[in-house]
Amino acid sequence: MPPTPQNSAPDPKGSADVSTSPALSWPRVAKTTAYVSAVFCLLIPLLLAVNHFHSLAHDSLNSPALTELKLALARNPRDEALKKQIRALDQELREIQVWHVAMGTRGAWLFLGSALLFLSTFKYATQLKRLPRPDKTQKSAEDEVRETAQVQWAVLGAMAVVGGAAWMLAANGETQLKASAPNPSGGAPLPVAAAAPVAPTTPFPTPEEIKSNWPRFRGPDGLGLSAYTNLPTAWNTNTGEGILWKVEVPISGPNSPILWGNRLFLTGANSKKREIYCYDALSGKLLWQKAVVSGAAPNAEAPNVVEDSGTFAPSTAATDGRRIYAIFATGDVAAFDFAGNQVWSRYLGPLDNSYGHASSLVQHQNRLLVQLDQGTGKDGKSKLLALDALTGQTAWESPARPVPNSWSTPIVIHAANKDQIITCGNPWVIAYDAANGSELWRAKVLYGEVTPSPVFANGLVYTVMDGEKLSAIKPDGSGDVTKTHVAWSAEDGLPDITSPVGDGQRIFLITTSGLLTCYNAPDGKKVWEKELELGFHSSPSIAGERLYLWGDKGMGLVLAAAGEFKELARSDLGEPILSSPAFADGRIYIRGKKNLFCLGNKGK
Amino acid sequence: MAESKPSATRRQFFRDGLRGALLFGLGAVTTLFARHSQPKKLVWQIDPAKCVMCTNCATQCVLQPSAVKCVQIYPICGYCKLCTGYFEPQPNALNTGAENQLCPTGAIKRTALEDPYYDYTIDEPLCIGCAKCVKGCVLFGNGSFQLQVRHDRCVNCNECSIAVVCPGQAFKRVPADQPYLLKDRERQG
After folding, report:
1. What is the interface pTM, i.e. ipTM, of the complex?
2. Which residues 16-75 of B are in CB contact (within 8 Å) with A?
3. Minimum distance, in Å, between the CA of residue B43 and any CA atom of chain A
4. Is residue A251 part of a domain?
5. What is the DSSP letter of A157?
6. Secondary structure letter of residue A392 according to DSSP
7. Domain span holding position A569
8. Is residue B94 part of a domain?
9. Is residue B70 part of a domain?
10. How many Å apart are CA A249 and CA A593, to the nearest integer?
């Protein structure tokens, strides 16, 4: 007969007797806890129900008292006491509602905790009353044989599952490993552009970053100057020589490509939709294509646009390496991140512009500059806007510009210890302080429908317009500097659409009819001129000692940017070109009427 | 002396190989079929074209506050100074006083942009999905406010308690990978 707890021998080691140890009180604790938690489980739903019905009685949605007070206020709109009553009652109703929601949430969690506690303690308390079961750890030989077979099948099954999953991944999955492309120059492999770029840590790019990219119309600072000189000079559409790739752009347009790293951006639009395109600059693959929803009224008339170019997207986009910004003839401005997510959009229209808004966007530090010239110049509609690049909100706005609609794109220069925004309109060249939009100086040197953009070289601002003159202006004046700061002016070979380009020594002008004129930059002396017998809408660019030009029908000319005319090469792209090129390391990107071309030498 | 028979003939080798390839192909086809025959996960969503802007979304959801919230479609918003989704009809004054606001929980934040434009944003934790603002905006404004089931809150009941009582039958099941039905600027108005 087993000894009873009462007559068991004392433990010689002094340990507690099993029958009287505190451990045996756990069932009692569990039992008591189960009772208490059961009471909670019954009580809490009751309290929750009370809370629910109480909240219905104080419904803030349909409070008759609040409605009555608001009606009374409508009858006596100047009754300040009523307003105070409404505010007090509104506050009270909101507090009650928040309190009810909080109580409901807490009550639900408390009920869940009580239920779990009840179940666990109830299980513990009742399990101890059961008769002992055979020890599960004791196995017979038959059990071992059966379990061994089960284990074998389980291993086989697991292997099959793992194998199947691996096969599915190999067949259908996309690798997360970074691929690399061979570097044409033979150095280390270049990263594939489709891989996600490293997120910039600064709010806007450094001057070095800007110089190594092509972030806006006519590249860094809008000067049409390439930082790279290892560029192709000839290409052939029949043999493909000198053409790395070409892709068709979904919607044609005359705006120019811009480039940041290995991402190339374009925009396209028609009367129904506006789109931004992101291409892999290495392969020409269209990475994403995003629509910009217009903020115009549904029944608003489409803006006037130039019929022959047929475009609602004449403005070139801009980027700061963080976001891409685009503006359309409708007046819609939008920002997207590099993954193609829209960050913000604004509607600046409807715009009063006889050919449609065409001035391109300019990014400067954390501002996006929009030259919004429209109307007659006397109606106060024209202005220069600086939007916050991150949010699209207006950071500052210039005073009304005394110019009518124009199509020129501003540039930002650093002169006279200030960042100055140089804008062109009829008849004024106006410089604004980039910090706050205040006017610094103006010169009356333009005329007509101003389209050419200004450039800055050799310490002088150069502006041009057919019918007026080519002017070199010293940017350190204030007020009207027409009579004091125009260093020189000239009247031959003036373009009406294309912008000038200068390398500090010479200024080159190309007219729409094909007259190329070279001026000496410091003194304005005409050096030479040449009739190219081609039409031009694309602005000229300089890369090192070479001048690049594209004719309206697609003929590309490479000339010496020198003191005498010398044609180095001439190659036809075979389709109309109205845009200006973007330059990168060993590559030129140019948009035709139908296709986007990447020119470069394979293997270099 | 008889020649020793090779352990595996060439014919047997090809036969076994063919069987193996067939089995592998069968497995691959079965896996592909099983993969593509899986039903798409569906979630509840409100069709804004059918929403009649009753207050059931605020009161019938199993969650409190409701999983239905107001959503502002910014491209449609007119940024009006007198927003009919924000202000009571014929408001006493165009300010943020409780006597002027339509929203019973003050969940719409009104921020001045530049005269006469104001930005309206939804403070989602406060929004109870009562649709008062939606009604005001749709009836008298551009209709940029709309109700949507927020899937960071919705528990996706098999039988949505709001859908059961929705008078416009605006609740529908949509694929989980496209869980929102937002208004489109072009189709609006």
Report:
1. 0.74
2. 27-28, 31, 35, 55, 58-59, 64-65, 74-75
3. 24
4. no
5. H
6. -
7. 232-245+500-604
8. yes
9. yes
10. 9
